[in-house]
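Re: that chain you flagged

S.,

Sorry for the slow reply, it's been a week of failed gels. I finally had a moment to sit down with the sequence you sent. For the record, here it is as I used it:
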Amino acid sequence: MKIINIKTYPVWIGHRNQCIIKVETDEGVSGWGEAGLSGRELAVAGAVNHYREFLLGESPMNIDALWQRMYRSQYFEGGRVLTAAISAIDIALHDIVGKVLGVPVYQLLGGKHRDYIPCFATTGSPTYEQLLENVKLLLEKGWNVIRMGSAHIDWGDPRIFEPRESIGLTAEWFIKIREAVGLGPVLGIDYHHRLSVAEATSFCQRMPSGTLDFIEEPIRDESPEAYATLRTMVDIPFAIGEEFASKWQFLPYIERGLTNFARVDVCNVGGFTEAKKVAGWAETHYIDLMPHNPLGPICTAATIHLAAAVPNFAWQEVRVSPTEAQSYPDEEIFPIQHKLQGTRFPVPNTPGLGIECNEEYLKAQAFKFWEAPHLRRRDSSYTNW
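Prediction finished late last night. Pasting the structure tokens below so you have them in one place:
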């Protein structure tokens, strides 16, 4: 069996672009993959096309060797663009091998540890009253792990964000939320790396210990030293890693105890090949995976298989819940896709990823330029989105 083509589809699906790839073989078996570098899909598609030139004619069964070849084939190795491309190809190769052998992908990763994948829901609101109502709705529907967004004071322009004004109000809301729902539910926040060390510290210290069970990405991840400083000043567990593009980026965060939940993204970190190494490494430090999963059905399928195959797993992100507007992509696009049953995904038993994509639909779509919001402070300086 040989690879005869790798097709790249950076196309608009639903509310965003997705960078979907298809690897084809000379025996008619093909595999689907997805890259996770949202907002820079054309750059990833270009990297995939570079890799395509020397992957043609290779055996898709040699997944790890092909991963090494892709990663080491240039002097300037690594980086988010390249590993996003490697991720998509790696996922597609696992899909092919699973189909050839007639087994789900998680069997290629060592077999399953669980029969279903528990998930967490996300909610946010411009008012405390609506936020409390959303949290209560999720609890009523069986969601006992809830991630909340920060308060965003809108001064007539949603592109304005003042971190210092957000942290006091957000802390006030969350204290009330915890008092209202009790100690049972797991509550967390995603600050989307919008804070500085001082701001993150002020936010955490405004709340009684135990108010939150995790804080996700409070500051940017480029400096492990900054996280080490923050770690000494707050007692809330950190959930970090969705931006990491390799096991090397995870290295200081795992080895120095700077994260308590590994937010590994299988579509960015290097596919299953790299994600399994991160998972094993995290296991030696008693760190559970809390995978990043904000993309499309292929990312969801890949994350389900990763979650099934590792012992150290907490919850999987899902963006379809009673409090989010997102919905499953049309079955015209993905005629076979994984869907929630309540608050969890059943672990599938179908060969490969267990997902199919309508390629004719992809061919008829186009890429639409989209940028994440460019947030500013009121003095017009840029701040993190």
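What I noticed first: The radius of gyration is 21 Å.

Talk soon,
D.
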